[in-house]
Amino acid sequence: MSEKYDLIIIGAGPAGMTAALYASRSGLKTCIVESGAPGGKLLKTFHIENYPGIKEMGGAELAMVMFDQALAFGAEYKAGEVVKVNKDKSVELLDGTILESNCVLLATGTKERMLNIPGEQENVGKGVSFCAVCDGAFFRGKDVVVIGGGNSALEEAGFLTQFVNKLYIVIRRDQFRAEEKFQREVEENEKIEIIREHVPLEVLSDGKVTGIVLKNVKTGKTQTVDCSGIFPYVGSDPISDCVKDLGVCNEHGYVIVDRNMETAVKGVYAAGDVVDKQLRQVVTAVGEGALVAQQAYKEVKEK
Ligand code: NAP
Asked: Which atom of ligand 1 is least distant from the CA of 280?
């Protein structure tokens, strides 16, 4: 058993990194545990243009700057996967390590939802991709299909058009869910064709993706779109398994918090996309991270 922390932060996205910066700067013994690369969803975002103070910056670049700053005041960083948060605020890692803490922040974000259609899983990495920023360049001169009509789908579709020959956006209603700005951009982009009121049925492949079968939701008629790449952007699910036993999640797995980002278990907080809330943005995540650090500071000082 290692020395007890004041605050253990699970997840090094914008919320977690900001909490680490604020907590360590105020003198709390702070540790961030992250199972992947630091940066969270920023790493999969081509550019950020709605974070005040930064007119435009690559997502990965912003992640690196935030990470440097998060560790600048002495926060520790551990690579590892947290499998359980206990009521006593100890945290269990996949490798059996147990870390003790006064407070815990869950800032694990969300993971991309799959389409769950035949041919999808076996073609991940063979044409099916969940990260346009990571894989877009592999589809230079090719035709690709983006599924979904939210901000992620439309933003990443725009990014992909710098590489591809033609891009189809498939939405299941006749309307997008995304902000109007993104809608205007895709509607004005000559490389993009929008296929409305269709759902994906099957990914076709001969070892690599060759096409996708779509069904018209009104007529039931099917059609095949030939393509080399498929990018599903149909939303995401919270990563909250490690707090499942604490009974702090809603029916969809999002974590319920009060106005101080504290869950029903005292000393256990959540911030960022994993929280049950309306607006999921970098700017909201960082504010929540800062708030948690301040609450943790108060709690530790009271003790
Ligand atoms: P989202 O807003 O939930 O949109 C998901 C899209 O996928 C919707 O168009 C939905 O259709 C469609 N969909 C869901 N299940 C489907 C299925 N089985 N088959 C076909 N289509 C399906 O998800 P998101 O775009 O990932 O965004 C998540 C959050 O992050 C949002 O709060 C968003 O505002 C935020 N975000 C913000 C930015 C930004 O501000 N720059 C960028 C990215 C994400 P319906 O509309 O018919 O339900």
From this structure: 32
